[in-house]
Amino acid sequence: MALELNEERFVSTMKEQAEIGGTDGGGLHRLALSDDDKRIRDWFLERMEEAGLDVRIDEFGNMFGRRDGEESGEPVMVGSHLDSQPYGGIYDGALGVISALEFVRELNDRDITTTRPIEIVNWTNEEGSRFQPAMQGSGVWAGAHDIDEEYAKTDTDGNTLESELERIGYKGQQPAEPAAEYDSYLELHVEQGPYLEENDKSVGIVTGIVGFKWGAITYRGEADHSGPTPMHHRSDALVPAADVITQIRRLPGTLGDRTVGTVGYVDVQPNSINIIPEEVTFTWGVRDPTSEVLEKAYDHVLAEAAAAAEREGVEWEHEDRMDADPVYFADRCVDAVEDATESLGYDAMRVFSGAGHDATHADSVCDTAMVFAVSENGKSHNEDEYTSWEDCYKSANTLASAAFELAQE
Ligand code: HGY
Ligand code: MN
Ligand code: MN
Fold this sequence. Notes:
Layout: H1 7-19, H2 35-50, E1 54-57, E2 63-67, E3 76-81, H3 94-109, E4 118-123, H4 136-141, H5 147-151, H6 161-167, E5 184-190, H7 195-198, E6 203-209, E7 211-220, H8 238-250, E8 260-269, E9 279-288, H9 291-312, E10 315-324, E11 327-328, H10 331-344, E12 348-353, H11 359-362, E13 367-373, H12 389-407
Parallel strand pairs: 3-4, 3-5, 5-13, 6-12
Antiparallel strand pairs: 1-2, 2-4, 6-11, 6-13, 7-9, 7-10, 8-9
Helix pairs in contact: 1-3, 3-12, 8-9, 10-12
(2S)-amino(hydroxy)ethanoic acid is lined by residues 126-128, 134, 355-356.
């Protein structure tokens, strides 16, 4: 059944959320557990209460709003995340949360009571930028991570996640675990890749999500004067790092056609033009739709890291930062999304996600699927991220219609 949302209110609510932590460049800088994350959480709490939802916050800050159904059966959950990347886009995460809010608002307007209860959710720290890993809140909720270990994670300023959660007042009372047996979870997100636009489609019917491996490698050499120290007397921590970083860029080309490898963060100490680098830490990540390729990539990176340390004669260490298996969504949920695009008459196609999402962890708890909205030039994780309001609205209607179908079963 096609359920079309209130387009004007949907767009104005998306614009409203984009003001909270908005940047001069038209993006969002709303890092997990920052003051702006607190502001958007406070705003979302008010919107959920206005919509008459029964709100609860768990001990990891995940925010839930429940709308009762005719029966007290297994709820259908819809949502995403409100934290952003540093200078990220206004759609990443927010589109899924606002669409979930608009879904319950529409049910209220039409005075519809679904068979199943509905829950909407804002997950803590999906981005994994300030604190690793990504999809942290949904991961704790799904039992993939130990909450005390995650509480102890620190940002680059040494703040623990727990202290930041307490500081912004979102360390809730509810246990961070499924409060019920869930029927299904649906998440709307911008594609953040080129495939829908290349195929001239507005909406993606997402069949699964790649697996991830993230790590941090540190090399320790010796600081010394960059002038008089002969080259054969040096222990330069940056040289092995540069070797491995280049390898991570080249490795995917030798593995699978959807394998990707990235180094996004490098810290060089003492970071001075005329001191031989003493300590270098960088984070790295590889992704692929299959666990076999991920394992191969992981082993290759660590072998390269050891060989590079040996060549330069420096100490090194590695810390695992994230390990998420690829997921393939349940047919019944993917079909519900496809039914929705057909009943709405939208241009859609099946796609696989190269970005991680909270749906990765929801999939270990209940049947799950996702809806994608086309991304202009496939761009994301920067202020130029863009999806037209028309395409946002189509994808939000798709989410609402699919969730409605599942909630009426
Ligand atoms: O890294 C990711 O794919 C997600 O945006 N956190
Ligand atoms: Mn996201
Ligand atoms: Mn993201």
